[in-house]
Amino acid sequence: MPKKPYSPWLHRYAIFVAICTFLLIIAGALVTGNDAGLSVPDWPTSFGSFRMPRMVGGVKFEHGHRMIAGAVGILTIILVLALWIKDSRRWVKWIGGAAVLAVLAQAALGGITVLYYLPVAISTSHATLAQVFFCLAASLVFFTRAGWRWDEPKLEDASTPSLQHLTVATTGVVLVQLVLGAAYRHSGMGVEPHVVGACVVAMLVAWVVTRIAMKFSQEPALLRPALLLGALVMLQLSLGIGAYIVKMADRNAPQPLPPVVNMTTAHVAVGALVLVTSLYLTYQSHRFLTAPTDTVKIASAPHGAAI
User: How far apart, in whole angstroms, are the C-alpha atoms of residue 135 and residue 236?
Assistant: First the structure.
């Protein structure tokens, strides 16, 4: 595999875009947490104008979210243009293109959400696509790092299922769990499916962390993200329980109270970090592990036996 030129400023800019994307997810969670989704009742204008509205009440959350989203969209387009100019790897360029399509689709879903008065399916899709876009932005951070390559020396992984398959499954289940959480926040379903999903995620992550600790504890490229993933999941479970407790305690409040908003927003933010960390561990397992090669030796077969 030809060595790709490393661009420090491009990698740092990708980090900046990913951080802004994470802040955008937090801003979106604040809109939902404060029940501010229709504080600005039109789109793409705000109260019939493109001028800055008065940032009071729920407007500061809703319109602030729109402003951050617009900035992230512009930053993403600049990043992808730089990738197409500076990075020679075609597959990285296509991931950048997917990021641009995702941010454009996200803007459209956000507008539809407002225009059709927060339909559950669209609102849930909007929240889910935000997580997917964050994964794309984070992936560009990983892929623009110095020394990133797929043809690293491989360690054999003879386990069943392989760690590669296990991390892919874990990342997929985490994404499904975030979809269930988004549906619950937007009143599309009860909390029970989300609780079941949390248990499944916890078991899968425990399986992954235990497997790596037992078999690949000397490989920091696998152990460090695995330990981080385990710690984030423990924090996420605590935040989920805390968010449900404070929400039930204040369920009769006329509007969401700060403890509820803060806890649910933190829950959404850490959920995004869990997803990206699981994705990174999936990449690492594909970089550093391989299934054992079974070599069939024809000469050792019995005479006349079918091979």
Answer: 18
